[in-house]
């Protein structure tokens, strides 16, 4: 519905690159409304290119870009500055209590926070499980299931996600110091 509305509203009014820019701004506005209304903190220059559902315990840094994401559960989610999150991201912050008074699980939940550092790139259709921490500058491969800790500047992927490469620290630090962000 939002995609259709954006195209309709910008169809006759604006042409060329200005149209694409206006469409991106309109998408961010329309998809961003639920984020601004629900999140505990939203930094400046939020970008939403798809539907985003966050929890009341979500804190977003500056210049965060979503391409569509859903956050589930009662735990907190913190996302650092300049992070780009791919389409279809699912973030779970709680799980059933399988150590409780019934099997396979009881009626209680166990909540754990999820933390995504600054300048993190999370690919499309990634699942982040409760208790996940992703360090600054890390890259998560599309389709991965992440649990536990991913160190800073690591490139990880798979199910479960494992570190298989590292970003060049000097290259990363030089671009970071020069303020070259996308």
Unreliably modeled segments: none
**Mean pLDDT level:** 90
* CATH architecture identity: 3 Solenoid
Q: Give the proportion of residues in helices.
A: 10-25%
Question: Key terms for this structure?
Answer:
182 residues; alpha/beta; UDP N-Acetylglucosamine Acyltransferase, domain 1; seven-stranded mixed beta sheet; six-stranded parallel beta sheet; 3 helices; 23% helix; globular
How does this structure look, described?
This protein has helices spanning 2-10, 16-38, 169-178, and strands at residues 41-42, 47-48, 52-53, 58-60, 65-66, 69-72, 77-79, 84-85, 89-92, 94-96, 109-111, 114-116, 121-122, 127-128, 133-134, 139-140, 145-146, 149-150, 154-158, 161-166. It has 182 residues and is of the alpha/beta class. The protein has a single domain, classed as UDP N-Acetylglucosamine Acyltransferase, domain 1, CATH 2.160.10.10. It has a seven-stranded mixed beta sheet. The chain has a six-stranded parallel beta sheet with strand order 1-4-7-12-15-18, with helices on one face. The protein has a five-stranded parallel beta sheet with strand order 3-6-9-14-17. Helix 1 (2-10) packs antiparallel against helix 2 (16-38).
């Amino acid at each position: 519905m939002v995609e259709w509305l954006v195209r309709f509203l910008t169809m006759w009014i604006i042409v060329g690159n200005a149209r694409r820019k206006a469409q991106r701004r309109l998408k961010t506005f329309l998809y961003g409304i639920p984020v601004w209304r629900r999140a505990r903190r939203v930094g400046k220059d939020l970008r939403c290119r798809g539907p985003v559902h966050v929890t009341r315990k979500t804190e977003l840094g500056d210049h965060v870009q979503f391409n569509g994401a859903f956050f589930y559960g009662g735990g907190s989610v913190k996302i650092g500055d300049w992070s780009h999150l791919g389409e279809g991201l699912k973030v779970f912050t709680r799980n059933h209590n399988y150590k409780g008074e019934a099997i396979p699980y009881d009626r209680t939940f166990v909540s754990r926070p999820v933390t995504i550092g600054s300048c993190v790139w999370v690919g499309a259709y990634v699942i982040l499980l409760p208790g996940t921490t992703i360090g600054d500058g890390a890259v998560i491969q599309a389709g991965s299931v992440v649990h536990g800790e991913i160190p800073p500047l690591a490139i990880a992927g798979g199910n479960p996600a494992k570190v298989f490469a590292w970003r060049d620290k000097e290259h990363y630090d030089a671009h970071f110091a020069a303020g070259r962000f996308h």
